[in-house]
Specification:
6 copies of one chain form a homohexamer. The first copy, chain A, is α+β, with helices and mostly antiparallel strands. In chain A, 43% of the residues lie in helices and 17% in strands. The radius of gyration of chain A is 23 Å and the shape is globular. Chains A, B, C, D, E, F: Pfam families: HD, tRNA_anti-codon.
C-alpha cells in the first residue's frame, strides 16, 4: 500500500518507515504521539492517541512498522488516525531501502552518464581532478540527496541533479560551441559535492556542524585546492574551478561570496537554477489536476502555479 | 576599412555611417563636432575640431561619409581626430544597409527556423495565433533589434534572439518531454514582439511614446487579446499566452506585474535570461584576450568577466 | 440582533449568513464545525462542537441560518459557542441581501455622482469611453466591493471608492485648475474596473483564474484598447488612459509595470492611496475608544493607530 | 530682460544677480570664471574667459551686475559667453529683491489664509500653540523657501506650501468631517517650521550645522515642547502635535523616526506629498511643450513626465 | 526553588511571581488559565486546567502565589501543569523584589562607576548636564531595564548597560587618546535615559503612549535642550550631545533620523551594539552546553550560535 | 618638501614618487601627462602640459623624480602645474621606501605586540597555527597595507590594523573574561592574511586575478585547512578558526557567506569594524579644522563628519 496515494476516508494497512516522532499532550492532559510515516510514494502525518511509555520506546525514527489507520484530514492535509501499530520483525522481510524515495532513474544509469561526461573531457587537468573526486566520494555521491528539502530531496538526488544539468549543458554547448565544455562539465559535477559533508545523510537529512559553520561552497573550494595539491596539478584550471564552485549560487545574498565572473560560471549558475526548478515544478504538478493551482511553493518565492487544462487535451488529440 | 578594428596610432580612411552628432565648444570658446561613426564591425567616437556652420549642415545622423582621421585615445577608448570628411555621393556606390551591424545568421535562415517551429506545433489555437503575428509583423520581425542596447542590439537581433531561445527550448523539451512544447514555442516567438511598437526602429534606436507609457509587455498582452478576437479563438490558450508574455521578465521589479505562475512561463523566463546573457558575454569575450578581464558590463550587474587562458590551449591541443 | 455588536458573555439569538464553514477534529478525535457568521454589522467565528454528518450537509456557505449561541473569547476575539442552529426557511422571510455589509451611501446616490462627473466632461473621446464602460458594467460596477479585503470590502465598495476619489479630485482641481479634470475623472472611474473580472463576486470574494494570471490592471489596459476600437476612437486619449490605469499602483513592486509619467496619473495614484487609507482608518477608528490604540492594521504596514482623547472633547465643547 | 527666457543665439544685455562664482583654469592653463546668473524668471550658467584678479574681486555672490553676453549651448543647456560685465551701482536703481524668484501668490494673501485657518480653530490648546509660533517666526515664516531645492524653492515658498496644504486639507475635511480639522491645520502650519533653523536663508540656501546634525523634524519636536511649557499648556495636544511633526515624512528611511500613528498624521503626510509633487510638476510642465517629455526629475524618482497634447486642445475647444 | 532551573519530570513546589495570565477554552469547551511564572532565575509557562471564576479573580499579574505543579514539555519548552495554587499571604514573608531578575552587579557598584565617570569629566558643560540628569532620574535610572526584551531586560539593566559601555569606552580611549572622552562618557550615560519615559516600568514592561508616539530618542533630544536651558548652558556641547543621542541607533531604518556625524557618535553607536550583543550572547550561552547550538536569537537576526567544546577544555587545562 | 602639506599658490621643488601616469590630449589636440605624485605625507595630482615622447618614456610609475611646479587648484583640490621635471639619479641618494606612507608605529613594535599576543595563548592548537602563519608570511605581513584604499592603506597597514584590534580585544576580554581570548586573538591575527594573496603589493596596490575570483576570505579559509594538515592538527579549533575568518565581514552582502555563529566571531566582526572606522576617521579629522565638516567619506556611507570646536578648548584648558 502506498502512503503517498491514500485518500481521505480510506483505511491504510501496511508497512511504513517512521521518519519522525514527537510526543505531545492533549489540552485535556493526555499523552499522544505524532509520527511521520513515509515510503517511496510520499509522506503522511499520523496521530497515535493515548500513547503509552512502551509506545515511546518502540516507535523510533528510522525504523519500520506495520500500521493500520484511518485517513482523515487536518488543515487541508491528509492525516492518519492510528488504530494499531507494531514494529516490523525480521520475518516480515521488509528493508529500509524499499521505503525511501529514490531518483526516478537507476543509479547505474546515473553513473554511466557522469562517467561518459568525464570520458569526453579533453583538458587533462580538469579531467583528472573530476575523476579523482568521483572516485573519492564514489559511494555517497550516488546515494545522497541534492538538498534536505526543496529539490532532488531523495536518494541519489545529487547524482540525478548532476545528470540533469549535464543534459542541459550539452544542449547549450551544441548551440554555442565556443563555450568551454570541459570546464562546464567539471563545474557541474563538482559544484554540490560539498553537500556530502554539509548534510548528515540520506534519511531525516539535517545539517552537520561543519555544514552550518562553513557551508558546502567553502568546503568544496578548499577540497579542490587540496585535491590539486595531491594530484600535483598547478594550472589556472584549479583557480577557475574553485571560482566555478564559489560563485554558483549567483550572488552574495544567495551564498556566493563572489558572483560568476567567468562565462562558464554564469552558465553553471543558470543551469543549476533551471534544473532545480524543473525538478520542483515537475514533482508538484504531477500531483495537481489540470485547471487547478498548486499550493504555494516555498522555494519558488511562495508562488502558486497553474496547470493549464488544454495541454492535456492537446496531448490526447495528438 | 573596419571602424571596429582600428588601433591607436593608425590612420583610418574610408566610408562610415554617422550614428550621432553633437555640437560642442572648447574651453577656449571654439566650436567642434563630436560624431559617432559606425559600420558592421563596431563604433568609434570622433572629433572634428574647428567645425564650421557648413559642417553642421552637411554631417547629419544616418548619412554616410568618406572620412580620413588619426586614431588616438581618450579615457581608455579609441577616438578619431578627423583630418578630412565629406558626405558620400551617389557615385560612391555605398548603401546604409552595408554599414549597420547584422545578426551573424542570415535572415532567411532565421525565418526558416521560426516557421519550422510553428509548423511543428500541434495545438491549433496556439499555432494560429503565432502564425497570424508572424504574418502581421512579417517585415519588422526580421529587421528589428531585440533591444536598444545590452543584448542582440543589431539588425534582425529580435529574430536572432527568438531562434536562440527556440534552440534552448528544444534542448529542455528533449530532456523533459512533459513540458508543453507548443506553449513554450508560442511564448518564445511572441514574448518580445511588443518591442516592434516600443522601439523606434533599427538605426539610432530609441523608445516611442507608447513604448515609454505602456512598455512592450502591456502592448503585447493587449495585442494577443485582439488577435484572438479577430481569429475568433476563445480557449484558455489566450489567457495563458497573455500570462506567458506578462510574466516573462520574472518579477515586478523587472517589469512583470505578475511573476511566472505556469511551468512553461518559468522556463520562458529562464531561457530568455540565458540567451540574452550568452549573447552579451559572447560579444564581449570575442574582443577580450585570454588571461584578461573584460570591462564592467552594465547589464550584467556591472561585473567584469575573466577569460581563462587555458580554454584556448585545450582547443589548440585538441 | 447584530453579529458585529455582540459582547462577551451575552447570548446571541437570531438570523445570520454563513460566510465560511470548515470541518475539524478535536485533539480527542471528535468532529466539529468552525463557521463564520456575518450580517451587515460585521462577522464572528463560531464553533459547533460534536457536529454530525447532517450538520455538514445543511450548514452551507452563503446560506442563512437561525442560531442560538453564547459569546465567549478566543485569542482576544469574540467567538460564539453554538447551542442550536437550523437553516432559515422560506417562511422566515429573510434575504441574503439583508445580511451583507453595504456601502454607507445608497447605490442611487453613487450612480448620480458618477453620472454627474461624466456629464461634466468636455473631452468627447474620454467621455464616450467612460460612458461606454459604465454602461457595459452597469450592474456589477455598483455591486462589487473595491477589494476582497483591506478597504471598501463591502457591497458597492467599488462605486463608493470611485465617488470618494471624485470628491478628492474635485478639491485638487479647484486649487489647481491647470490639471486636466476630464482625464483625472476618467482615470478615477476606470482605474479599478478590471476588478469586476479579477474578483469572483460579492460574497466570499476570491480571485478568478484570470485575476491571478493577469491582474485587474492588465485586464483593464486591454479593455480600454478594445473599447476604443469598438467606438472607433483613435486620439492620444486612448494611450494616455491606458497609462493612467497601468500606473495607478505607483511603482513596479506594487503592481504597476510603469510608474506614473503624466501629472494626472501621479495625482490619480495619490488620491487612490488617500481614499483607501481614509476608508480603512475610518472603519477601524469607529470601533476604537478615545485614548486607545487600534490593533495592527495589515495593509497600513502593520501600524497600530492612536485615537486622541481630546478630539472628542473639542467636538463636545463646540 | 529675462534670464530664464533667453534662447540660444540671442544676445542678453541687462542686470542679473550673481548666485554663484567658481574659478577655473582651461586645459591651456588660462584662468576663467564660471558664474550662475539669476533673476525672477530663472537661472543660467555663464563663462567669463580670460578673467583677471580684479574680476575675481568684483564679481561676488549675491551682488547684482550689468552684463552683456551671447547665449550658446553646453551639454544641452543654455550657457552665456560674457562679452562685458560690471557691478551695478547705486544709481542703477536695482534691488536684490527684484532678482529673486518669489511665490506666485502675494505674501499678504498667504498671511491672510494662514491667519484665517488659525482663526477657525476651536481647540484652544492647538490654537494658542500655533498662534505663538506664527508670531515667533513672523518674519522668516513668510520669507523662507520650503526647501533648498526640489519643491517651493523660492521666496515665501514655505508659506506657499502651507497654504497649498491647507487648501487640500479643507477639501479632505469637507468630505470626511470626522477628521479633527484643528489638529490637521495645526500639523500643516507647524510641520516644516523647523526649516527656519535648518536652512541658512533665502539666497543660495544651504544647511546650518544644527540643520545637519539634528534636522528640521527634531528641531521642531523640541520647539513644540518648549513652547507648550512657556504657554503652560499640558494637554495631550502637545504630545500629539509633536507626533504629527515627527512622523510627517512617513517612514524611517525618509527621516521620520516614527511612522504616522494617528489618522491626522497619516493625512498630513499624504497632503504634504501631494502639494510638493503638484508644485514640482506644475513648474516643470509649464516649461514643457505639449506632446513632449520633461527632463528626468530628481526628486520624483528620476521619472520623466509626458505632457499630453490633447489637454490643450480640449481647453481651446471649450 | 528556582523556576528557571526546573527539569522535565520534576515537581515544583514554591513561591512564584505571576507575570502574565490569559484565559482560554479547551477544544472540548472547558475554561483554563495560562500563567507565566517567574522568579530571579527565569520564567515558565503553566496551565491551570478546569479553572474557576474564583481562580480568575485571585490569580492576578504581579502578585505572588504558592504553587505545586508537575513539569512537562510543550513544543520543546518546559511547561508546568498546576496541581495546587494559592495567593501568597502577608505571613508568608515574601516580597516582589525577590522574584524579579536583577543585574548581576549590585546597584551601589553601578552607581559608583557612573559617578566616577562623571567625576573624571573636565568639560564643565557636559559634566553639569550629565550630573543634572543623573540627579533628576536618580531613582528610576538604577531601577529600569535597558529594554522590554532582547538585552539587559532586568532590574537595573539600564545602569548595567551604561556601566558596561563605560568600560568599553575606557578601553577605546586608552588606545585612542585623541577621542573626546568627556563627550563619549556623556553620550553613553544619557543615550537611553529617554527609556525611563518610553517604558512603563520594571515588571511586565510595556511601552507608554508617549513612548510609542515619540520614542526614547526624540524624548531625550528634547530633554537635553530643556535641561540646558534650565542650567543656562549655551555652548555647542548641547547641540552635539543632542546629536549623540539622536544618532546612536546608527541609521534611519534603526530609528536614528540622522546617522552618526561626529567621531564620538560613531563610537557610541558601535559600543552600544557591542555591549548589547555581549549581554545577549552571554546570557544565552550560559545555558548552552559546549558542542551545542543555541536556539535562534530574535534580535541577532535569528542566528543560532555554536558553543565550541574546546574553549572549556583549554580553560580546565590552564 | 612635503607633497601633502603644499598650499595653493606655493612653488614645490623637491623629490617625489610617481604613483600613476596617464596620457591625455587637450581639446586643442595637444598631448599632456597627468601624474600622481606621492611621498610619506600624501598625494597630489600634477599636469605636465605639452609633453613629449621622451617625457612618456622617462616618467614611469614607481620611479622617483625631481620636480619643480606651481600649486594651483582644480575642482576644489590642489593640483600642480609642472615647470621642470627629471628622473632621480643614483647620486641623488633617494630611496623609494622614503616616499611611501607608513604606519605611525614602527614595524618592530608591531611585531613585538603580535608576538606577545601569540605568546599569551594557552590553547596549543590555536597557538601553533597562528605562529606558523606569522612565520610563513613573515615578510609581507609587516609590509602590506590592510586594503587598497579606505582604511590602513599604507605600508605595514595590515599589521597596524591587527595590533589595533588586539588592543580592543584585550579591553573587551578584561571586562568579559568568559570570552575565549585565544580564539579571539587567533581570529584577529589571521582574519585578513588572505589579503597578502588578494592584493598585488605595497605601491599602486591593485587586485590579483586570484583576489578577484576568490577573495581574501575564501583564500584564507583554504589556507587554514592546509596549514592544519601540515601541522597535523585535527581538533575542532580548525573548523572554528575557519568560521572566524569566513564570517568576519558580518553578512552575506558584505562578503561573508556565513554570518558570525560563534560569540568570538561576532566580537571579531565588531572589533574589525571599530578599528577600521577609528583609523579612517582619525586620518580624516586630523586634516579638518575644528568647527568644520569633513568631505563625504566613501566607505562611511558617504557621511560627512563634524569636528566640534569645544573638544579642542577643553583640551587646552585642561
Amino acid at each position: 500500500m502506498a502512503i503517498g496515494k491514500q485518500k481521505v476516508g480510506e483505511i491504510f494497512e501496511g508497512f511504513a518507515l517512521i521518519k519522525d516522532v514527537k510526543k505531545g499532550t492533549t489540552s485535556g492532559g493526555k499523552p499522544f504521539l505524532t509520527l511521520v510515516f513515509g515510503d517511496q510514494t510520499g509522506e503522511m502525518e499520523a496521530k497515535l492517541w493515548d500513547s503509552t511509555k512502551e509506545d515511546e520506546q518502540l516507535l523510533l525514527p528510522e525504523s519500520i512498522v506495520l500500521v493500520n489507520g484511518e485517513i482523515g484530514q487536518f488543515r487541508g492535509k491528509a492525516q492518519m488516525r492510528i488504530n494499531a501499530i507494531r514494529p516490523a520483525q525480521p520475518t516480515d522481510g521488509v528493508h529500509i531501502a524499499d521505503f525511501i524515495e529514490k531518483a526516478p532513474v537507476a543509479v547505474e544509469e546515473l553513473k554511466d552518464r557522469i562517467m561518459e561526461a568525464i570520458f569526453e573531457m579533453k583538458n587533462p587537468n580538469l579531467q583528472r581532478i573530476v575523476r579523482a573526486f568521483v572516485k573519492k566520494y564514489e559511494e555517497n555521491l550516488f546515494l545522497y540527496p541534492a538538498a534536505s528539502r526543496n529539490h532532488h530531496e531523495y536518494t541519489s538526488g545529487l547524482a540525478h541533479h548532476i545528470v540533469g544539468m549535464l543534459g542541459l549543458a550539452k544542449g547549450v554547448h551544441d548551440l554555442h560551441p565556443e563555450i568551454d565544455r570541459d570546464l562546464l562539465y567539471a563545474g557541474i559535477i563538482l559544484h554540490d559535492i560539498g553537500k556530502l559533508r554539509e548534510l548528515s545523510g540520506v534519511i531525516s537529512t539535517s545539517y552537520t556542524t561543519e555544514g552550518k559553520l562553513l557551508g558546502h561552497i567553502s568546503i568544496m573550494v578548499e577540497e579542490i585546492a587540496q585535491m590539486a595539491r595531491e594530484l600535483q596539478i598547478e594550472g589556472e584550471e584549479v583557480l577557475v574551478l574553485q571560482h566555478m564552485v564559489l560563485s554558483h549560487h549567483g550572488k552574495a545574498e544567495w551564498g556566493s561570496p563572489k558572483p560568476p565572473m567567468i562565462r562558464e560560471a554564469e552558465i553553471l549558475h543558470l543551469i543549476d537554477l533551471m534544473d532545480a526548478r524543473l525538478n520542483m515544478l515537475g514533482r508538484v504538478l504531477e500531483n495537481t489536476a489540470p485547471g487547478e493551482f498548486t499550493e504555494r511553493i516555498f522555494s519558488l518565492e511562495q508562488r502558486s502555479f497553474y496547470k493549464p487544462a488544454f495541454s492535456v487535451k492537446t496531448e490526447l488529440d495528438a
